[in-house]
Amino acid sequence: MIRLSCLRVMIALGVGVLSIARIQTIAQVTTSLQLAHLSADPALSPVAVWAGIPAFGTVQFLPAAPSMSFRNATPAISSIPNPLISGVQIPVGLFVDSSLTVHLTPVGSTTATPTIPGGQFTGLRLRRGANIGFIRGVQSPSEFAPNPQRGDIRLILSVLVDTVNVASNAIRIIVYHAVTDAPAIDVVVRETNEVLVSQLAFDQAAPYILPDGNYTLDVYQSSPRRLLASYAAPLRNLGYTGQRIVLAATGFLNPAQNRNGAAFGLLAIPNTESAQPSLLRTTDPPPAGVRLPDVSVQVIHASADPLISPLALWLNTAAFGGSQAAPLATSLAFRTATPIQTFLRSATASIPLQGNTNRPTEAFITAATSGTLPGATLIRVPNYVIASGGNCTLIEGVVDTTRFVRNPSGRSVRFQLRTLPDTATFLERNQTRLLVAHSVTDLGDVTIDVRDATGAMLATLGPLDYGRSFVALTVPTINYTLAVRLSATNMTLGTFALNLASENLGGKRVLITATGFASPAQNLGGPGVRLLAAVNDSTGRAFLLPGGFTSVRERLDLVSSSVGMALHAVMPNPVRDRATIQYELQEAKEVECSLIDAQGTIVWSGERQLMPAGRHTLVLDVRDYAQGAYIVRLADMRGHAVSARISVVR
User: Which residues lie closer than 8 Å to 124 by C-beta, 6 or more apart?
Assistant: First the structure.
């Protein structure tokens, strides 16, 4: 998202935007200038627009538009007539970095002498690429409703430059917000549930690429979220395939408070030398429920292996008709998720997942990167399959199984990509679709009891075994409590709050999975068990459920205490060379510290000393000890002891 400034050409909008597969022709970006009249001030329609260019030490004004009305635009001109030599055209590219001027005058003016207050814009500098100028705002702000976010609504010429080439079977969209009395907006593609822009404020612009097609666009006020209007956007039928277009939100939300100006609308402005802008017609609002994409992919990082966070996940596009690796995630940290994707996009490919299901392809895990697929592949998954419906792909397990605790139920804890498919495609807005799984490598099968706010039992989910089974169900969007217990012993491990109503998750698909380690100290000091929620939409929001397992302590304060003494956390943990141990005595004691390995053998014992009351520190050198789990034990001469687990890594 880019905020436009008065008479300031902004940076190119093309960072990170991908082009399309099977390219036949490319619309190469040349330097051009286009002006769009987006000021809904009734006193400013129509106006004449004059463009002033430097020529022989002076400014020569040419009529860019003798009569431009609101919601109209000039063509995207790449050359202009020579004001001194008839019949000769001057490329606009010659004026790159030159200071240009734009004047607004009344229709019928024979000169560019400005008579419209505030209608003189100087210091405009073109950049290489498509320069698009928006005349927006109002002449007398005091006579109009203010912007809810305190944006400057004065009459201004805002300019952006776009340098991205457009592929022949794609449509490059630049969404621009020109509604002075409107807060930030979201624009959503109804057919795919893709969010074109989110939190787009007045005088901001943001780019997006859509495959060739006809769409329905729902425009929402961002916060509090409410539908403003829905529009039919037959982009293919309008001839916009292979083109760059501006989708401009224009007019007023409340015309009666704005001198009865034009009402809110969505204007499509092609960045070409011929086509005219089109005001999109309104259409029926979305149905009462929420339509989920027929085929989508979301990736959730649920592997607590501390050596593979963050990571990148790539797919080989050969099974999709492409010829190179495409990223599903380029920098995914533990307990985070990607937004849902309905297309597989790479530097040269954009392939819809629809129609490419149930075809095994290769997946590659690499180190986090923002570039292309690096040569070093950490993990290769040969048979990754996308199924019909919503595909929630869990990254689970550990890379080096010898360094981690085995699964109590005998499941393999090897690194894997596990996809949880869900064929539900429609939800009522007061319902939430849940996928519930178990991703804790060192925890046995679990069962989850679901209770409402009153404590009444509603359902029992499971048993869930690590890395294999999951449960899919649709529930009312209310707040719940989840009690997780071991299936074998029925022992309750912990409780969590699943606040579907408070988190505004109506009409959403949400993945809930247990993540981390039940015994962090025995697993390279990895994170303890928590329940992770990942929202299966275009935000990819992920968060930990409030609550915790009673058997796991992730706090860095007291880890063990006994009569008159307490042992604080050992830092760092895991440790490679030296660890700092802090303990506290309430009274003077004769104490001894020792280190015990996993077989119960004392491998080191410090000197027995009489220590005064207070906090004490000692340094433990572990460079000569093998990798593995150990116990630090502090004991007094009365048989009282405190202990803490540490992990030695190499």
Answer: 7, 9, 99, 100, 101, 102, 133, 157, 159
Matching residue, tokens 């397992």: 549
Question: Which three-class secondary structure state does DSSP give residue 308?
Answer: helix
The residue to which tokens 């869930």 are assigned: 464
Tens digit of pLDDT for each residue in 447-505?
A: 999 998 888 889 899 899 999 999 999 999 999 999 998 888 787 888 899 999 999 99
Burial of 557 (0-12, 13-18, 19+ CB in 10 A): exposed
Instruction: Report d(CA 9, CA 163) in Å as an integer.
Output: 12
pLDDT in tens, 577-598: 888 888 888 888 899 998 887 6
Specify whether 463 is located in the same domain as 323: yes
Question: Are 499 and 591 part of one and the same domain?
Answer: no
Structure tokens at 145: 């409703």
Q: How far apart are CA 16 and CA 346, in angstroms?
A: 10
Same domain flag for 563 and 541:
no
Domain limits for position 102: 2-279
pLDDT of residue 14: 36
Structure-token pair, residue 426: 């429609």
Number of other residues whose CB lies within 10 A of the CB of residue 109: 18
Which tokens is 126 given?
Answer: 């073109």
CA-CA-CA-CA torsion sign (27, 30, 32, 38): positive
Task: Check if the beta carbon of residue 158 is closer than 8 Å to that of residue 11.
Answer: no
* Cis peptide leading into residue 277 (ω within 30°): no
pTM score over 0.70 = no
Q: Pairing relation of β-strands 509-515 and 530-535?
A: antiparallel
Strands 547-549 and 542-544: unpaired
Final residue of a structural domain among 503, 524, 549:
549
Separation CA 271–CA 275 (nearest Å): 8
Tokens of 74: 């000039």
- Residue 46 CB burial class (10 angstroms; 0-12, 13-18, ≥19): middle
DSSP 420: E
3-state secondary structure of 256: helix
- 193 backbone φψ class: left, alpha, beta (φ>0; ψ -120 to 50): left
Tokens describing residue 253: 């939300």
Cα separation, 507 vs 290, in Å, equals: 6
What is the spatial distance between Cα 120 and Cα 59, in angstroms, rounded to a whole number? 14
Is 297 in the same domain as 244? no
**CB-count exposure of residue 491 (10 Å: 0-12, 13-18, 19+):** exposed
As a residue count, the chain comes to 650
Please check whether residue 53 is in contact with residue 60, taking contact to mean a CB–CB distance below 8 angstroms: yes
Six-digit token pair at 617?
Answer: 């520190």
